[in-house]
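P.,

For your records, the input lines for the assembly:
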Amino acid sequence: MKLLITGASGLLGVNLAVEAMRAHKVIGVDRGKLKSAPFQVIQADLLEGSAINSIMDASQPDWLIHCAALANLEQCEEHPDHARILNTEIPGELANICAKKDIRFVHISTDSVFDGTKESIYLEEDEPSPPGVYSRTKLEGERAVQKANPQAIIARVNFYGWSLGGRRSLGEFFVNNLREGKSVNGFADVIFCPMLVNDTARLLLEMLQKGLSGLYHVVGTQAMSKYQFGVEVARTFGLRENLISPQSVENSSLTAKRSHNLWLSTHKLSTVLGHEIPAFSTGLAEFYTQFQQGYPQKIGSYQHFAAF
Ligand SMILES: NC(=O)c1ccc[n+]([C@@H]2O[C@H](COP(=O)([O-])OP(=O)(O)OC[C@H]3O[C@@H](n4cnc5c(N)ncnc54)[C@H](OP(=O)(O)O)[C@@H]3O)[C@@H](O)[C@H]2O)c1
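C-alpha cells returned:
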C-alpha cells in the first residue's frame, strides 16, 4: 500500500514511518526537519493555503495516517486559535478529502479527552469532558473527522519512544536525566497507560489492514503513575531509581490542567483484532533493546545530511 503520514518528524510519525516501510511505500509530510530519511518526504506546512490539495495530488495514497498536531498542552493554552486550526479543522478537511477519494483515513486523537474524574477504567462509550484547550480541540477534531468520514479510524493514543530530537517522550526524559545523574520529579497522581510507540505504530497498521473503522483506545494495557513509569524505566536501564521523587502534578509549574486518571480500556481493540494488546513489559524491553542497538542515533540521523 502507499501510506501518507503527516507529522513525519514527530514522535509517532517517524516511528510509524520506520515500521510501515517494512511492508509499504511510505511518504511523509514534513516542514523541513527531515534531511536524510529513508522514506520519501514531501515538504509542506499544512497551514499554508493550498498545501493539503498539493500533498494529496502529489502522493495519491491508499492510506493516510494523520499524526500532525499541536501536541504541546502549554502552547495550546497560549495559542487556542492555532490549536483549533491544527487539531480540529485540518483533521476534518483531510477526513473529507479521503472520504471523497476513497482513501482509508486514520486520525490520531488523545487519551486526555477525559478529565480523569472517573474512578475506574474509561471505555470508548464514556462521555469525554476535555479539561483544556489541547484536549478540547482534539475532541472537536474527532467529531469533525467522524462527521466528514464515518469510515475513518479514530485512535486515542498514549506512547513513549525514541524521537528525532531525542527529547520528545517521557521515556527519553527519564533516560536522559538519570544517565546524567540528575534528580527528577515523577508525577505520582497522574495515572496513564503508556505504550511503546513502535507497538502503537504496528497496531495502527494492523487496524488498517483489517479494515476497521470507528473509535478505539490504542494505549498500553497496564495503568501506572508517571512516577511508577520512571521507576520501571530506571530498573530496565540499570539506572538509579532513587533519583526520581514522587510529586503531585498540582505542585508543578505546568500551566495546562492535567487529568489525574487516564486509565483507558483496550478491550474493544483486542476483541476486534482477536489477540492481546502488547504488554507493558515487552514494550519496555524493546525500548531498552533499541537503545542498546543504536536506534535513537538511527532516528536522530534522519534530521542531518548523511556523511559521504
Ligand atoms: N505523545 C503522546 O504520548 C501523545 C498522547 C496523546 C495523543 N497524542 C497525539 O498523537 C499525535 C502525534 O503526537 P506526537 O507526540 O508524535 O507529536 P509531536 O512529536 O509533537 O509531532 C507533531 C508533528 O506535527 C507536525 N506539525 C505541527 N504543525 C504542523 C504544520 N503546520 N504543518 C505540518 N506539520 C505540522 C510537527 O512538525 P514539526 O516537527 O515541524 O514541528 C510534528 O511532525 C498527535 O495527534 C497527538 O495529539 C500524542
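Two observations worth noting. The chain has a mean pLDDT of 97. Residues 7, 9-13, 31, 33, 45-47, 67-69, 71, 86, 108, 110-111, 138, 157-159, 168 surround NAP (CB under 6 Å).

Regards
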